[in-house]
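Re: beginner question about structure tokens

> Can someone show what the tokenized structure looks like for a real chain? I only ever see the sequence side.

Sure, here's an example I had lying around. Input first:
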Amino acid sequence: MTLDGFEHDKAARIVAVDWAMLAGDEGKRLKALGVDEGTEVAVVHRGIFGTRDPLAVRIGRMTIALRRSHALAIEVEPA
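And the corresponding structure tokens:
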């Protein structure tokens, strides 16, 4: 399951990131923010418009905003 479809406010663990779906600089930024295999994350908020963009994702004590297209590249499992 991708991060985009994961339940709200439930802990998940990143099992894979499809770096090929992301532009090179986007992938580097996400890695610098801690998005990588094995990291525990949680979706804490979704946008209110039709595309549900952006997603607010908690990584450790930090909350970051992700585009839905980025969340589709992140495969997760329940933690």
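Each token stands for a local structural state, so reading them left to right follows the chain. The mean pLDDT is 93.
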